[in-house]
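hiii so um. not sure if this is the right channel but i have a protein structure encoded as tokens and i wanna go backwards to a sequence. like what aa goes where. can anyone help
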């Protein structure tokens, strides 16, 4: 099944050279939740890295030093993750998209040396303008990037998924959903480990494997379970692909070969979709195979920049 859509990664400081300083900020999402973010580097289009389920921006630590040499890079912690606020009752894909849009707007204002007052509705700051961006989303961060792109008309050159978009219209059955959620409701740490472990390759460095498992199972259970319930419900209601309908943004993906990609079904909703595959990689390929992954991501960025396609 399309498990790749249901994981993610998030925030944290990335250690670059001693001369490189990050711009730290806090954006205000539509519902008033504070969203922590970090900006490094210069150059357009800006690259916005979106994590997924029970992770944070530290999962992009192998990408930020590389891409901030030529691009403005933005990492963030989605609500309930990392350093961001965790006061929501429901953690929906749509609300996560509002988190990303709020950060893009706040970071654009910061780049111009201006400030935007906290507002309850992200639409109130859409007119702030700013440069073009490419949204890069790992796992669940892919669909979240699509939600954000809808809130940023004319700003998004494209979306790059990272081990996601294998089957955006997967016909999930309720029994499948309950089989994955029941262990986490009983014991989140153990259930999370059982859920994530098959997505890691035995060829991945053991220390990295252990770190990912320990880190993800330490996420807030309330946030983790709510996020999965809300995400799975989109598949149950056959609404998971709707966010891509009419989006008008080209989409690419850099995937492992854990799950087959349903190109035909994806393109019915996406319009423009291409993928590259790292054979033998696991779900966390950006950490486990950074050199190869960065090369493939760079190719995708160059292709999207050359198209200059906007909605």
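sure thing!! here u go:
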């Amino acid at each position: 099944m399309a498990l790749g859509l249901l994981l993610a990664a998030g925030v944290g400081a990335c250690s670059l050279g001693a001369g490189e300083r990050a711009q730290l900020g806090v954006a205000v999402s539509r519902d008033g939740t504070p969203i922590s973010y970090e900006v490094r580097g210069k150059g357009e289009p800006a690259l916005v890295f979106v994590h997924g389920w029970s992770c944070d921006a530290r999962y992009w630590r192998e990408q930020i030093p590389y891409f901030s040499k030529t691009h403005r890079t933005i990492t963030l912690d989605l609500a309930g993750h990392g350093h961001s606020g965790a006061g929501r009752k429901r953690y929906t894909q749509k609300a996560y998209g509002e988190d990303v849009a709020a950060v893009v707007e706040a970071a654009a204002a910061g780049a111009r040396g201006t400030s935007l007052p906290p507002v309850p509705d992200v639409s109130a700051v859409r007119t702030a303008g700013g440069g073009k961006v490419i949204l890069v989303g790992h796992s669940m961060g892919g669909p979240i990037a699509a939600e954000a792109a809808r809130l940023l008309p004319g700003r998004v050159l494209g979306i790059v998924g990272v081990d996601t978009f294998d089957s955006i219209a997967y016909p999930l059955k309720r029994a499948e959903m309950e089989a994955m959620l029941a262990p986490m409701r009983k014991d989140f740490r153990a259930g999370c480990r059982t859920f994530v472990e098959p997505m890691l390759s035995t060829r991945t460095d053991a220390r990295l494997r252990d770190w990912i498992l320990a880190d993800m199972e330490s996420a807030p259970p309330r946030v983790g379970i709510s996020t999965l319930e809300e995400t799975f419900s989109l598949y149950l209601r056959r609404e998971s692909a709707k966010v891509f309908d009419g989006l008008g943004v080209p989409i690419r993906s850099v995937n492992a070969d854990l799950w087959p990609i349903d190109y035909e079904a994806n393109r019915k909703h996406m319009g423009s979709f291409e993928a590259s595959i790292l054979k033998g990689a696991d779900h966390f390929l950006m950490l486990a195979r950074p050199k190869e992954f960065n090369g493939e991501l760079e190719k995708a960025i160059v292709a999207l920049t050359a198209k200059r396609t906007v909605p």
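oh and Confidence is low (pLDDT under 50) at residues 1-19, 115-129.
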